Each structure stands twice: as C-alpha cells, then as structure tokens.
Amino acid sequence: MRPYFKKQNFRSICVLTLDCGQTPTAIIRYFMYLPLNFIPVVGTVAFVALQGRSRGPTAHARYFQLKGMNKTQQEQFVEERKGAYTRYVMEASYRSV
User: Could you read off the pLDDT of 40-92 as tens digits, one per residue?
Assistant: First the structure.
C-alpha cells in the first residue's frame, strides 16, 4: 500500500501539531485557568472562552502556512476575527464532550 502522506508533508504536519500551542506559556495559562472549572456552569464556560482565543489560531496553523502568512499577518487575521475564533473553539469543545 502507498502511504497517504509523503515524508516531507508528514514531517511538516507533525511539526505543526507538536509545536503550535504547546509552549510553556500556553501550558502555564491552561493550569491557571483550570480552577475555573470548579465553579458550576459559569466557570466551565469562562474556561472554554478564555482558551478559545489561543486555540483557534492553533487549529488553523496549516491554513496560515499554506497561505504563506508571516507572524504579523497571522496576528492581524486573528485579531480581526477574535470573536469567531472564540465561538469556534467553544463549539468544538462542547461537541467533543
């Protein structure tokens, strides 16, 4: 059987999924927001909303790479669509539960 991904494409996807959003700052932020889950209903919604801003762009890292956007273009693109990214991640989080 032929592999679905060529070696080069597979490496770039692995690098994207391992590097994006897994910085020490992101991990620290995650654990800082985690206690919000102890507040019934409102805390969980707040936790997911706060995570949305950082996780939305991570999900679109491959899109940004294919479009050839640099870091400032990515930040501008995300800033213009901040609310949409938050809603996108909230919806994805609730559907995964």
Answer: 888 888 887 777 777 777 778 889 999 999 999 998 998 898 888 888 877 87
CA distance 14 to 10: 6
Whether residue 79 is contained in a domain is answered as: yes
Q: Please say whether the beta carbons of 35 and 50 come within 8 A.
A: no
Tell me how many domains the chain contains. Answer: 1
**Which of 29, 4, 27, 19 minimizes the C-alpha distance to 65?**
19
**Which pTM does this prediction carry?**
0.55
Whether the CB-CB separation of 14 and 49 falls below 8 Å is answered with no
In a domain, 2, yes or no: no
Q: Please check whether residue 21 lies inside any domain of the structure.
A: yes
